[in-house]
């Protein structure tokens, strides 16, 4: 669970310092139309003529760079042989996305944001009413679990993030993080079934906008959610002996899997045999110029075979 660090967020958003008790309810004028559309089953977005999106396969290794805790700067943080960049959606400009796409026709840019937690430092923090904000997300300052059962409140906010932080900036895909709420301590009696329903709703919303979407985490739920997502990104599946769940679901169905380990080295022999894009990374997912940056891939970036 690696996300934007609180220190980085405060530098970028110094005016946002509201706590849980200060989070105002979303005005009815902001919520009512979207809530009604969700409740009625009306499509949340019109993707126009877009019927296809990025669907990566495990046929060949995919060389990717994931950077969250340090603002991505072009061209400083561009790395050779990379075709996929996974960056914070709110903090990355449309100009940066366009510059990355200009590197080559195969370059894909993924839009990261947190879908299952409230963060005091985000520019839309004011939209989350206190009724959906739960217990602290342990280990991440300024982050609190959300009551993801309240779809009429949560989904419109996430849809706006997808549109304004991701689609309108030219991103190709979406990585919704912190969506495994039920197995943590959110402060709400959320079931696995309700959690799966939330994940499926997020995936359907991304697809309705014509965007690719990956399953982030939810390791033990991967077999149940594979049909709704285009690819998967798992953390520490080697450390906790959960990678086989992705081999038997996403890989078996021809969908790419990305994996990072923080505390142990991945089992590269098995990862390559299973066609999982595995690497050892630094916990904060810094940029390549940072002193704490760590990147040890199972398949070198200059090699295109398993």
Outline:
The protein is of the alpha/beta class and 306 residues long. 25% of the residues lie in helices and 18% in strands.
Write the layout of secondary structure elements.
Elements: H1 6-12, H2 28-40, E1 64-67, E2 84-88, H3 94-101, E3 108-114, E4 117-119, E5 133-136, E6 143-146, H4 151-166, E7 173-177, H5 192-208, E8 212-216, H6 222-225, E9 231-235, H7 243-247, E10 257-261, H8 268-274, E11 277-281, E12 295-297
Parallel strand pairs: 1-2, 2-3, 3-7, 7-8, 8-9, 9-10, 10-11
Antiparallel strand pairs: 4-6, 5-6, 11-12
Helix pairs in contact: 2-4, 4-5
Q: How big is the Rg?
A: 18 Å
Mean pLDDT over the full residue set: 88
* Helix-residue proportion: 25-40%
**Would you identify the regions where 5 or more consecutive residues have pLDDT less than 50?**
1-49
Question: Tell me, what's the shape?
Answer: globular
Query: What count of helical segments does DSSP give?
Result: 8
H/E series: HHEEHEEEEHEHEHEHEHEE
N- and C-termini, Cα separation:
27 Å
**Physical arrangement of strands within the biggest beta sheet:** 1-2-3-7-8-9-10-11-12
Structural class, please? alpha/beta
Can you count the beta strands? 12
Q: Hey, roughly how much beta strand do the residues contain?
A: 15-25%
Q: Biggest sheet, in brief? A: 9 strands, mixed
Question: What are the main properties of this structure?
Answer:
single chain, 306 residues, nine-stranded mixed sheet, three-stranded antiparallel sheet, 12 strands
């Amino acid at each position: 669970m690696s996300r934007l660090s609180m220190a980085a967020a405060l530098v970028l958003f110094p005016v946002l310092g509201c706590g849980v008790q200060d989070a105002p309810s979303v005005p009815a004028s902001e919520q009512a139309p979207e809530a009604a559309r969700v409740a009625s089953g009306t499509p949340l977005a019109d993707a126009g003529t877009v019927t296809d999106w990025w669907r990566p396969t495990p046929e060949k290794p995919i060389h990717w760079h994931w950077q969250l805790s340090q603002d991505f700067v072009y061209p400083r943080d561009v790395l050779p042989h990379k075709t996929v960049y996974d960056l914070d959606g709110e903090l990355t400009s449309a100009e940066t996305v366009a510059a990355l796409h200009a590197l080559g026709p195969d370059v894909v840019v993924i839009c990261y944001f947190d879908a299952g937690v409230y963060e005091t430092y985000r520019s839309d923090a004011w939209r989350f009413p206190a009724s959906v904000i739960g217990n602290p997300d342990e280990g991440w300052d300024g982050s609190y679990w959300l009551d993801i059962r309240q779809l009429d409140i949560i989904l419109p906010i996430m849809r706006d993030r997808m549109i304004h932080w991701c689609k309108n900036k030219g991103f190709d895909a979406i990585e919704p993080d912190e969506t495994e709420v039920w197995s943590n301590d959110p402060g709400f009696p959320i079931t696995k079934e309700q959690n799966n329903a939330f994940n499926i709703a997020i995936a359907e919303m991304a697809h309705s906008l014509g965007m690719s979407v990956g399953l982030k985490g939810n390791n033990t739920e991967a077999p149940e959610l594979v049909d709704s997502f285009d690819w998967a990104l798992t953390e520490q599946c080697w450390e906790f002996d959960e990678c086989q769940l992705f081999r038997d679901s996403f890989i078996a169905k021809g969908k790419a899997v990305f994996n990072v380990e923080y505390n142990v080295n991945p089992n590269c022999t098995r990862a390559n045999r299973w066609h999982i894009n595995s690497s050892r990374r630094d916990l904060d997912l810094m940029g390549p110029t940072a002193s704490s940056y760590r990147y040890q891939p199972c398949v070198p970036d200059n090699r295109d075979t398993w």
